[in-house]
Amino acid sequence: MQSLDRCLLGYVRSHVIEREEAVKTANYAAYSNSMTSDFINVDPTGKTSNRNQTMTQLKGALTDIKFTKCSVTFVSTPHEKSGLATASVVLAQDGTGGGTTPITSVARQTDTWSLVNGAWLLKRSVVAETTVTVAGHVMQHEGSAATPKP
């Protein structure tokens, strides 16, 4: 089982990086195609959004922001059970808003992927904490540092 978990970790890590690269390049189709049709996002306040709503929010957020660097840190190794894999991750993005203002976004979340036709797609994200820093000042902070439960 351990070798499966390591293989899954590599796949999921590359999948998350591909999704974040799609954010950097505003490749909405690639981002949307990385999610299951029944994808659900839960924000730190408990509000849920489906895939279409999440894509609308992403497009709105990226209207004035250009991310130039994305990274992912796994807080836990993904474990597969019955075609689902879950792991806690920290996503960090650096970029600019309004052309030159530095922006950093960090999210701590638990993601669940589903094996669909041989590919792992994001099924659910439960975000425990998000922090957005603009020009070195925290402009938005929601949630707590506690690891979210899937």
Radius of gyration: 15 Å
Number of strands: 8
Number of domains: 1
Largest sheet: 8 strands, mixed
Assigned CATH class = Alpha Beta
Number of distinct helices: 3
Termini separation comes to 21 Å
> Which fold name corresponds to the CATH topology?
Nuclear Transport Factor 2, Chain: A
Going by helix content, strand content and strand pairing, the class is alpha+beta
Oligomer: single chain
Order of helices and strands: HHEEHEEEEEE
- Return the average pLDDT rounded to an integer: 82
Q: Segments where pLDDT lies below 50 for 5+ residues?
A: none
Q: What is the percentage of strand-forming residues?
A: over 45%
Q: Helix fraction?
A: 25-40%
User: What CATH architecture do you see?
Assistant: Roll
Question: Which word captures the global form?
Answer: globular
Give a structural overview.
The chain has one domain: Nuclear Transport Factor 2, Chain: A. It has 3 helices and 8 strands. It has helices spanning 2-24, 28-33, 51-61, and strands at residues 35-42, 48-50, 65-74, 79-81, 84-97, 101-116, 119-134, 137-143. Strands 1, 2, 3, 4, 5, 6, 7 and 8 form an 8-stranded mixed sheet that branches. The protein starts with a helix and ends in a 7-residue tail after the last strand. The model has no long low-confidence stretch (mean pLDDT 82).
What layout of secondary structure does this protein have?
Elements: H1 2-24, H2 28-33, E1 35-42, E2 48-50, H3 51-61, E3 65-74, E4 79-81, E5 84-97, E6 101-116, E7 119-134, E8 137-143
Parallel strand pairs: 1-7
Antiparallel strand pairs: 1-2, 3-5, 4-5, 5-6, 6-7, 7-8
